[in-house]
Write a structure and sequence with these properties.
The complex is a heterotetramer, with two copies of chain A and two copies of chain B.
Chain A: E1 6-8, E2 11-13, E3 17-19, E4 41-47, E5 60-63, E6 66-69, H1 77-89, E7 96-100, H2 105-116, E8 123-127, H3 138-141, H4 144-157, E9 161-165, H5 173-182, E10 187-190, E11 194-197, E12 199-200, E13 205-206, E14 212-216, H6 221-234, E15 239-241, H7 248-256, E16 261-264, H8 267-270, H9 274-288
Parallel strand pairs in A: 3-4, 3-16, 4-7, 7-8, 8-9, 9-10, 10-15, 15-16
Antiparallel strand pairs in A: 1-2, 5-6, 6-14, 11-14, 12-13
Helix pairs in contact in A: 2-4, 4-5, 5-6, 7-9
Chain B: E1 4-17, E2 20-26, E3 39-42, E4 54-57, E5 60-62, E6 67-73, H1 77-83, E7 90-97, E8 110-115, H2 120-131, E9 137-142, H3 152-157, E10 160-164, E11 171-172, H4 179-183, E12 188-192, H5 195-207, E13 211-215, E14 231-234, E15 237-240, E16 247-249
Parallel strand pairs in B: 8-9, 8-12, 9-10, 10-11, 12-13
Antiparallel strand pairs in B: 1-2, 1-7, 2-6, 3-4, 3-7, 5-6, 13-16, 14-15
The chains are: A alpha/beta, B alpha/beta.
The complex binds flavin-adenine dinucleotide (2 copies), flavin mononucleotide (2 copies) and FE2/S2 (inorganic) cluster (2 copies).
Chain lengths: ~300, ~260, ~300, ~260
């Protein structure tokens, strides 16, 4: 068996496959179906300072090889998380990363500080790319100045591994990857969802209550893969790739294009075992081709 | 209750009426406990425009043959594909999902009200209620005589009252117009059907202070509580229709206003 | 029968459905299969000053509900076009729009001047969004200053209807729509392809000879529709929408979101009759809902 | 030559060997003129991962029954679906597409060389050549005995020389190792098969100054000359394999170097 371990800053994962934020709840929902301890990590739901009800129904639309969502960061807030969710997560034999969201830089700082104190959480994923909220979110992730400000502030407030989750809704993804690196992030993860929409020609109205929503699934894979490739060539910190990974081959495409790790999002809804299957595929490919370690194939398309 | 992901084998596909099918699928592993009101998430293959799984209620369960029945109404490409399932094909399910109807207590007078594919969960519910020693009654509504679905199995469990919108069979109007519905004193009403039907039933029950549960059919992406797409506004905030529901007591619902 | 006519600047089209550039050759290739005279217009192949051989093979990859192309504007140049292609196009009873591409602002000016002289061509589509060429193309379409410069220059050089074709690979599509309007374009068309890529995990190499290519097809429809909706709210000039339209309902989604006309691209490869079917669908919807004219439903989602 | 888009009906699906099928489809409108070397673009339904049409050579044509034969090798999801076509299903084709092989002139000594699904266009070509009064010979190559495809119909048209890579049947090695290939003086060689085979045949023919045409299987998006994705570098620049080809004279090709 090849060495599947990878490092994200100081955090070592047993393998490079994680579940993506907002698509795996807090893990518990999937425990009947998959063995979470086999995963590299799980990135739990987008968490905010205050509880949020999210956006009105309908929040979802199916599209060609993909889906739009407009959840809008529904969650019970950091207080509830600390009290009721964290204690359970702390018992998992799996790395748990928390996805962090704020309306303001101060929100982000406060959240980062509070999560810093939760010893069983080794990393946060700073979400500056949620397209489904009016304040914060993607506004930070599409403006270089705001991005720099929030990353720098959180870097100050947070002592453990800091991952910045980037928005694909930008002209030049490398700019945001570089800013993250410069401000001390230990990794970037990308992509969050592409901003999209759908219209129901029968009702002559938008399908989503919010008009626009975030597109995920295999439809976005070519765009996600291109951005991961660009980002990985632009920075030295690890890139965590995601967007439309449905199977092991898809995961390998991202790794070969330069991703140190991958996240599985929408695929979990359709096939909860996708992440586990991806781990097996990566392992088999390495064995077949006589690679010692997954590190050997990261970015290999740039070398052969 | 523990859920599983499993390939089941189609053992029967029976056409009920134009656009309505009952598909039976059997588990070689043996069925887990399934409660009335629960649903399955079906993986639809060979349908290029169907990306996500499709939620379908458990219509009936037979533990002798380890078979689940699904009542499928063709609504689009996904259910169209399911309607063409052939014996021997396998389909992949995640199940059982969701909460369940609250069973009545002995002595309760119970009405199960539904129409179209909303009849689906009521057969299994009716069977469980009958097994508990109560004879349920049914109120089933249809557009007109030609749209009436086979309901022999419901008659085996209890009295069936029919309504058709044009009066071509049974009572004229909606199920809430059936005299037995309006006139009797029900302890519990369970309803599943098109939204206008559920709203009318809920209104009547609220007015008369009858315990009433409805099974909602919100759009779902995951069916397992991990996407938060299927929410229902309730008195305790937005709840997930797939884990906190699909069955809700009407007193807890801030009835959804989206069409 | 409802009134399907629409106007793009001074150009009146019999209906709002066109064939997109690069996906219908010069029309002749499709004559056996569809009646071109039924179409609103055809936008012929990307044309450059000098002949171009385009990019090396492989230039194509199939993706989930879409495809990547890296054609790179292969064409015989404007000289050949004037001499050998234009005379045939001039005989068509269909509006023919030429898609114009340059490496430099001067190229664009020269091309616009020469096409201005071709009396049977009522409009050009200024392509500042081709992702498959090293110079020109998307570089103009993703930088506001360059975009403004090239549009202004072409506006000076060209007397007839000027359509600017926008790139979706930008943070804010409305910025480019506004610049087009300000510099005198009579319409914007969007979207061109999204920059994407694919890796072959067996060969561990990129699938396309150019690594990245342009993503088209239904996969991109949600993103395209969102951008069309945003652009149509930002400018007063007509917006021509495209990106993944596969049938009449898709075309209606774009029109209801604000597009005055639509273009059919990749769908033609799979079902050459898509454009004609879309015209029929639009007509039926208008009849069913008792609308007099297609103008009644343009942007209707913003009104109901 | 005019092309059309048409639904044809599957009348036969015959399994030749593991992964190889001959599917016959019939036109109720009556077939147009089709030339050997031409191909069809098949719309593949019910295969979610197949977005574009699939190019398939015309394997044979029967004007009596208005039937086209397609020889299909399962390569991925699209051809897998085609291999499961059932009698009575319709498939939508755009056809006939592409140029054609240049037919030989009376007195020519003609070899048709191929292997695997590259045999597909050679049957129809052989038939046309036979009809023109020349008896063609065939050189067919396979991995090993168990991979040899049925080729009775080729034998009906002329002598068949076999090669297998392991020598388990016919000559050992590639088709270019067949003595009849190397030793005879051919006027024309027509070849279709895997790229290494075509390159070997082309090299031999160039060396011996034999007229040789190959049928290329470039990736195609449209098949109609409108996407410019299927190009082949030639002495007159990049040509479209779907309209200027798929048949090319090897003298015109700057042989593609991409794998
Ligand atoms: C808990 C639950 C239980 C269900 N039980 C059954 C059942 O037992 N039998 C059955 O036939 N159907 C049932 N449904 C509905 C079924 O899931 C949908 O009809 C199906 O997903 C439609 O898929 P499709 O691909 O055929 O159609 P699509 O092409 O996806 O949709 C066709 C049309 O139906 C609408 N639609 C799709 N899903 C829903 C929905 N959930 N609510 C409202 N409108 C919708 C779409 O907007 C569209 O207009 C249930 C739904 C839920 C949530
Ligand atoms: C003019 C022409 C005529 C053809 N005639 C026949 C025929 O008569 N019988 C037949 O079985 N096949 C024929 N082919 C090949 C056939 O089109 C492909 O095998 C088919 O498109 C594969 O589709 P798929 O969905 O099954 O596999 P995919 O999943 O699309 O591909 C499976 C694998 O095959 C590779 N592949 C796919 N298409 C090609 C190609 N064109 N060239 C090289 N590699 C490819 C892919 O890269 C992938 O690795 C022909 C191709 C052309 C261009
Ligand atoms: C329903 C849903 C909810 C999501 N919620 C979050 C979230 O809270 N925070 C976040 O950073 N990303 C969120 N995402 C984005 C995913 O984590 C992921 O970046 C995106 O879906 C692309 O990956 P995929 O195509 O594999 O799904 C969400 C995605 C979906 C589909
Ligand atoms: C093979 C191919 C070639 C294209 N060539 C051009 C071109 O020369 N000029 C241009 O403006 N757009 C070109 N496009 C983009 C299309 O015109 C269109 O903007 C895009 O494909 C999105 O629409 P669709 O999803 O309907 O295909 C090309 C697209 C494809 C697929
Ligand atoms: S459908 Fe995903 S949470 Fe209910
Ligand atoms: S396949 Fe489109 S031009 Fe040949």
């Amino acid at each position: 068996m090849a060495d599947l371990r990878i490092k994200i800053g100081s955090l070592e994962l047993r393998n490079p496959v994680m579940l993506a934020s907002g698509t795996c709840g807090y893990g518990a929902e999937l425990e009947d179906l998959i063995d979470l301890t086999k995963l590299g990590a799980i990135v739990v739901k987008g968490t905010t300072l205050e509880p949020r009800e999210g956006n009105p129904y309908p929040r979802m639309a199916e599209t060609a090889s993909g889906m739009l969502n407009a959840v809008g960061l529904q969650n019970k807030g950091i207080g509830y998380f600390e009290k009721h969710i964290y204690p359970k997560l702390a018992e998992y034999d799996t790395h748990v990363i928390v996805n962090v969201n704020g309306n303001t830089v101060e929100d982000y700082i406060e959240l980062a500080r509070r999560i810093d104190r939760l010893t069983a959480i080794p990393a946060i994923e700073l979400n500056i790319s949620c397209p489904n909220v009016k304040q914060g979110g993607m506004i930070f992730g599409t403006n270089p100045t705001s991005a720099r400000e929030v990353i720098a502030a959180v870097r100050q407030a947070y002592s453990k591994t800091l991952i910045v989750k980037l928005s694909p809704n930008v002209t030049d993804i490398t700019e945001f990857a570089r800013i993250s690196e410069e401000e001390g992030a230990e990794a970037v993860s990308l992509v969050n969802t592409l901003l999209g929409m759908a219209v129901d020609p029968k009702t002559m109205k938008p399908v989503l209550s919010t008009v626009t929503g975030g597109l995920s699934g295999p439809a976005i894979k070519p765009v996600a893969l291109r951005m991961v490739w660009q980002a990985a060539r632009a920075v030295k910190i690890p890139v965590i790739g995601m967007g439309g990974i449905m199977n092991g081959d898809d995961a390998l495409e991202f790794i070969m294009a330069g991703a140190t790790a991958v996240q599985i999002g929408t695929a979990t809804f359709i096939e909860p075992r996708t992440a586990l299957n991806a781990i097996i595929s990566i392992d088999s490919l390495l064995a077949e081709r006589n690679f010692d370690s997954v590190a050997n194939i990261i970015g290999i398309i740039n070398r052969i | 209750m523990s859920k599983r992901i499993e390939d089941l084998t189609v053992t029967e596909n029976h056409r009920l009426a134009e656009g309505f099918f009952v598909v039976k699928v059997s588990s070689s592993a043996g069925l887990p406990e399934i409660l009335p009101g629960q649903f399955v998430q079906v993986l639809v293959t060979e349908s290029p425009s169907t990306f996500l799984r499709r939620p379908i209620s458990v219509h009936d369960v037979d533990y002798l043959s380890n078979t689940i029945s699904l009542l499928i109404q063709v609504a689009g490409a996904g259910t169209e594909r399911l309607s063409r399932l052939r014996n021997g094909e396998t389909i992949n399910l995640i199940y059982p999902l969701g909460n369940a109807f609250t069973l009545p207590v002995l002595g309760d007078k119970v009405l199960l009200a539904g129409g179209g594919c909303g009849m689906a969960p009521l057969l299994f519910l009716g069977r469980k209620i009958k097994e508990s020693g109560i004879e349920p009654q049914f109120a089933l509504g249809f557009r007109n005589r030609s749209r009436i679905l086979e309901h022999e199995q419901f008659r085996d469990l209890g009295t069936v009252h029919l309504a058709t919108e044009d009066g071509s069979e049974g009572h004229r109007g909606f199920i809430t117009d059936i005299p037995a519905f309006r006139e009797s004193k029900w302890d519990r009403v369970y309803c599943c059907g098109p939204e206008p039907m559920m709203k009318a039933v809920a209104a009547l029950c609220l007015e008369r202070d009858i315990f009433c549960e409805v099974s909602l059919e919100n759009l779902m992406a995951c069916g397992m509580g991990i996407c938060l797409c299927c929410i229902v506004p309730t008195t305790s905030g937005n709840l997930c229709s797939c884990t906190d529901g699909p069955v809700f007591n009407i007193r807890d619902l801030k009835w959804q206003t989206s069409e």
